[in-house]
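step 4 of 6: structure.
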Amino acid sequence: MATPWWSVCRRWSTNCTSPSLIETLWHFNCRAVSYSAAHLGQTSRSSRPGNEVQPSSSAQTIPNTLTCTSFLFRHKSRLLYSRPQSCCCRKIHSDAKPKDPFTLAQRDLTSLYDDIKKELFVSKELKSLCDYYFDGKGKAIRPMIVVLMARALNIHSNRAGDLLPGQRAIAMISEMIHTASLVHDDVIDGSDKRRGKRTINEVWGERKAILAGDFILSAASMALARIGNNTVVKVLSQVIEDLVRGEFMQLGSKENENERFKHYLEKTFKKTASLIANSCKAVSILVNSDPEVHEIAFQYGKNVGIAFQLVDDVLDFTSGASQMGKPTAADLKLGLATGPVLFACQQFPELHAMIMRRFSSKGDVDRAWQYVLQSDGVQQTTYLAQRYCQEAIRQLSMLRPSAERDALIRLTEMVLTRDK
Amino acid sequence: MFTAVRLRLSHKFWSRGGHRALSLFSSSEPSNWSKVVSDAEKIVGYPTSFMSLRCLLSDELSNVAMHVRKLVGTQHPLLNTARGFVYDSRNNLQMRGLIVLLLSKAAGPSHTASDLLAQDMVSGIYPSQRNLAEITELIHTAFLVHRGIVDLKEWTISDGPLKDMQFGNKMAVLSGDFLLANACTGLAQLNNTKVVELISSAIGDLVQGIYYENSSNAEENSLTDGVNIAAWEEQTFLSHGALLAKSCQAAMELAKHDKESQRLAYKYGKHLSLGHKLNSDLQPFVKSSMGEPSSFSLSAAPVVFHRQIVGQERWHQQLQQATTLRKQLDYSKLLAAVKSEKGVSSAVDLCCYHGNKALEAIQAFPSSEARSALENIASAITKF
């Protein structure tokens, strides 16, 4: 299932010695842009699996790599935005800006938290633990993507945009699965703050926190079963397995540099992107029987999800403590080497030993932090996130135009420019 | 390959000798119980849960096993639970799965569903029912692990280094989650959303049961209790009965047996679990063991009956009398107090009641080897 981006990784691990790694990415970026530009004029959808990487020969024959790169440099935020516009200009008036995705999704999400709380059918103290994070203060980014994707897919499939009941349920379930995993993650990481409030484990203790997470998961699983579609159940059960496997991957680190990058991206897919990708796929299954459409939905979710996490990893280095609602460099303190560190390691091999000992020696966190800021690890991770967003847009462009589709395109830009 | 592994595992646990971390069925009644169970295992073909083994042998859990070694010498409960995986697999871990398999076999092949083929059955059990039995075991094991999460704030330095406990918690969360995730994907593969819903609701029941099992333990200290036997049964059903009852029902659903069979299977699972729990709660009170009486939970059924019989006031007096100067409970004194009243006999009566209810439920199934085994199991829990 995760093959497509695997092949990206494999390409790195075979082609890339340190200096050429980011170059390969640039090649890839350029290729993706030129490919989709050429592709957009065509009427038939690509039959090739979504982000199957082109044969490397095609990447190497892309002319004028340098121009392309500098273009990326100078217009990195405009690039993503202008291209989709140009692709839809025939359908949308040039002055019609895509709507803000949050605004557009709002009508389908007004009762989200109330609906979730109704699913958490339990009394007394356990109820307050389960409801704790469904206080309406979360961004609910997953349900937002799910409802926009569902409407875009419904229109693509010649229906009215309105959500099917099952699609609405999937939006809710995605947030429940996400929250259940947060509750467990906070115990695993020993976190005491989340979203500016004390964590469940901090207030009620670890044992109850774990049980609350388990309860939310069981309620999500019941809601999922009630949709009554076996394929949908399988697709979302996969998410639960991916979340755990991703968490396990975080325990270990790889000695070899390329292995490490592959490991990091696979972990990122499992821990973050799988939920978004498979939720998108699940809503597509309910409205359309075409596997290619399922794949588009999946690929959009996967690429946006990975980009989202890459940006998150960047923000861990660049954002102040107050903005993220958690102390910065939290990942380093947990012993985790994320994108910026892995890139920085190419410039500062001294980081290698620190990564291997999970920044456990005194002063490691501060030194690693300095190295990362001195390197271009942050920029390179950001470029990588852009690459994933471009791929997400390319996938989505295969759907029939709709306000929701364009909002999802706009969302990729917001993912990249967010600062918290 | 699996057989070889199983042999290795069993060799390991037998060589551990008498270490019993979690066994509910204690040594006082081994001959009868072991015979009933091993006879029953022969009936269902292969009792070993392949899926549990797959999980136990996975990269993820062998990774955990490596880490758990670091916990040796600490007091983290995960260590005992991990020992229980091996030792207890015979008595308890496999018990739930075994009953699901026996019921599946006792109910026989489907009469209605055309997509279920009799030739797919192994020893009279559909593959999906075998998978369900394994999923039941996975869920049960996952919660054995999650039950043992330690509250770090209640941990004092004298108990040992906090770091060990944090690490143990991390491992316990991850391995429990891993088992649960495998149960979820396994459930999805059954291709029956009714079963997914039923078993998911059992997970919710189990969580509630364990949640309040913990909180009632905490209340023991503060002595604020209004426990009565009806509440005890309700609570025990959630923590010890719902999973088996609903799994039994689901096994019928998988073979497309009618609502009535489903109801009876549920009933068997429910009453058997309650009887089972009563039996194990009664062990310290019926054993005529020499030497030190083992400690027992103050929410054990005989104690709850006793509290109901003597009333709050006298119970508090008895508790005080049994409290030593160092604020420790003298369990032998308390045991004598409970034994002097009718708490024990009431609990025995209740145990027999549930055993009989389970027997009654199973009578509607056609007479067979599997049904006899289920009857024997139901009778065994009423023997002391």
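step 5 of 6: annotate
 - The interface with chain B takes residues 121-122, 124-126, 184, 187-188, 190, 205-208, 210-211, 214-215, 217-219, 221-222, 224-230, 233-234, 237-238, 240-241, 243-245, 247-248, 251-252 of chain A (CB under 8 Å).
 - The first strand of chain A starts at residue 193 and ends at 194.
step 6 of 6: archive
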